């Protein structure tokens, strides 16, 4: 018997080659944010060592590092703890009040006409203008310091809450009402997520101002804290102590802002924005 011939289709696509993709090695990212400070420190060290800058006015970075090491064994942890606790307490008080009052102003026209003009006027008062009055009313204990820090944190958070709620798309609110959401559910499921970017920006700015107002409070009346170190360095003409306190303030402010930035990135990861496109 003759073997039967099998008719194969003419246009049969060639089998595709399988390309195995090996996992890419993680690229090392250079810390470009450290480049400018390092260059400034090197230039300052060389300028002081070369006699271009008087060391009594601007100590070398190596001398500031030695001062920080000396302070670490002479009460620096207590100063750091006092300043951090004051900022945490004042920021919590100011931000909490700002969240409540900001939401009331943004959602109620009558409340806005009642409170917003006063808040806008108080927002223009400098921090140092509050210090004598708070000292007169509350003395030199912790109360005036916490109140001053709370004042500094209040207004950025208040502005963020008001602008965030007012900026919510009206169509989103109408859709929520079509689904017959209760006012509390509408605020929780529609208003809060839509206003969250502005709210987190306000919290971030409020935390930065809380550090600034803390220094103003401790410069006037304090026996511990980084502001006290600044004042002590000024009275003893120790520029190295003042610069060491400034370096610590910059580091603490940067660490706290980085933490708030990480929280902001995590809470807003659902947005299809330019900042999130690299993570998709």
From TrEMBL:
- Provide the ABC transmembrane type-1 domain boundaries: 80-260
Q: Which UniProt keywords apply?
A: Cell membrane, Membrane, Transmembrane, Transmembrane helix, Transport
Q: What is this protein called?
A: ABC transporter permease
Its transmembrane ranges are 30-48, 87-109, 121-140, 146-165, 209-230, 242-263
Keyword Transport applies: yes
Q: What is its main location?
A: membrane
Q: How does it sit in the membrane?
A: Multi-pass membrane protein
Q: List the PANTHER family.
A: ABC TRANSPORTER PERMEASE PROTEIN (PTHR30151:SF39), ALKANE SULFONATE ABC TRANSPORTER-RELATED, MEMBRANE SUBUNIT (PTHR30151)
Family of the protein in this entry: Belongs to the binding-protein-dependent transport system permease family.
Q: Where in the cell is it found?
A: Cell membrane
Q: Which Pfam families match?
A: BPD_transp_1
**What species was this sequence derived from?**
Massilia haematophila
């Amino acid at each position: 018997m003759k073997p039967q011939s099998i008719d194969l289709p003419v246009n049969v696509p060639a089998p595709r080659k399988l390309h195995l993709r090996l996992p890419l090695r993680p690229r090392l990212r250079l810390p470009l944010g450290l480049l400018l400070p390092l260059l400034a420190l090197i230039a300052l060290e060389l300028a002081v060592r070369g006699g271009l800058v008087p060391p009594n006015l601007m100590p070398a970075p190596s001398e500031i590092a030695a001062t920080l090491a000396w302070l670490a064994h002479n009460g620096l942890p207590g100063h750091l703890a006092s300043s951090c606790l004051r900022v945490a307490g004042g920021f919590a008080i100011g931000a909490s009040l700002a969240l409540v009052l900001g939401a009331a102003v943004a959602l109620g026209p009558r409340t806005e006409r009642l409170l917003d003009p006063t808040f806008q006027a108080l927002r223009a008062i400098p921090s140092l203008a509050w210090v004598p009055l708070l000292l007169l009313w509350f003395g030199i204990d912790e109360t005036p310091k916490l109140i001053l820090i709370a004042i500094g944190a209040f207004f950025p958070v208040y502005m963020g809450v008001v602008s965030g709620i007012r900026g919510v798309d009206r169509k989103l609110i109408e859709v929520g009402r079509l689904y017959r959401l209760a006012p509390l559910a509408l605020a929780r499921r529609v208003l809060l997520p839509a206003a969250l970017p502005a709210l987190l920006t306000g919290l971030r700015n409020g935390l930065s101002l809380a550090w600034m107002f803390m220094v103003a409070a401790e410069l006037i009346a304090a026996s511990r804290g980084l502001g006290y170190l600044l004042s002590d360095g000024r009275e003893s003409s120790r520029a190295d102590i003042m610069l060491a306190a400034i370096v610590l303030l910059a580091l603490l402010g940067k660490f706290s802002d980085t933490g708030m930035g990480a929280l902001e990135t995590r809470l807003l990861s659902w947005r299809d924005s330019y900042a999130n496109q690299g993570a998709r």
